[in-house]
Amino acid sequence: MLTWADYICRMLSKSQISFIKSLHHKKFRKETQLFLVEGIKSVVEFLNSPYKIKIVYYTDDIDKKFLTLLMQNNISTDLISQQDLQRISALNSSTSVVAIIEMGIHTIDVAYLQGKYSLVVDGVQDPGNMGTIIRTADWFNIHQIICSENCVDVYNPKVVQASMGSLARIPVTYTDLSVMLSQVASLPVYGALLHGQAVYETQFMEQGIILVGNEGNGISLNLQPYITQAITIPKFGKAESLNVAIATSIICSELRRPKG
After folding, report:
1. pLDDT in tens, 138-151
2. Is residue 238 part of a domain?
3. What DSSP string describes 157-221?
4. How many domains are contained in the chain?
5. What is the pTM (predicted TM-score) of this model?
6. Domain boundary, last residue among 49, 73, 102
7. Residue 200 C-alpha from the chain's centroid
8. CATH of the domain at 85
């Protein structure tokens, strides 16, 4: 049933709805260099980042403090009906905010890898896993994520949602990992494999790379020669495998464990 607010909202045209919905797909995100962010918390995270918000669509039940924050930052806004918001949303969960945001421009500077830890992700396909890995990097202060070219797109709406705003802080780049790893031979590469030193016994250096692989196949065979220390999470129960996002969290936790 329509409410009075629906009559005073600006109705989106079919072409506008079609354009916004096109951003659900990687092809059009890449062409336009735009992506969607949904939910107040996530939009605020991007508002406080170098990303540029093009416009925020919202419904009449929006938090007024949030709307004031957008206006204070000169962000373009558009009040639309709940029906239109549902049409443009890429998520199944209900939301009152959809923002269109410009993609960040992130490049790999090999020199920047020195003196810190970076997370290198090979072939991760599941959006939920990728989003959780981004949140994990943010939590453990891993400064950047470098992905193989066949990883899921980090601007996929499900990845953005799962990252819970951490994508606004963690730069993610895509590259040929074999080329990149060949350029950082001076850094230790800790590769998560089924057979390796127990992560609880590993003495991590002051800098390096954490390399994790695909959900089903692990780290690609062509990348394994670059691993200087194979590490594993010991199995104590009967589960066949460990989720890559959970494994990444355990490894990062051990990496940050105080030494001595």
Report:
1. 999 998 999 999 99
2. yes
3. HHHHHHHTTGGGTS-EEEE-HHHHHHT-TTS-EEEEEEEEEEGGG----SSEEEEE-BTTTBS-T
4. 2
5. 0.92
6. 102
7. 27
8. 3.30.1330.30
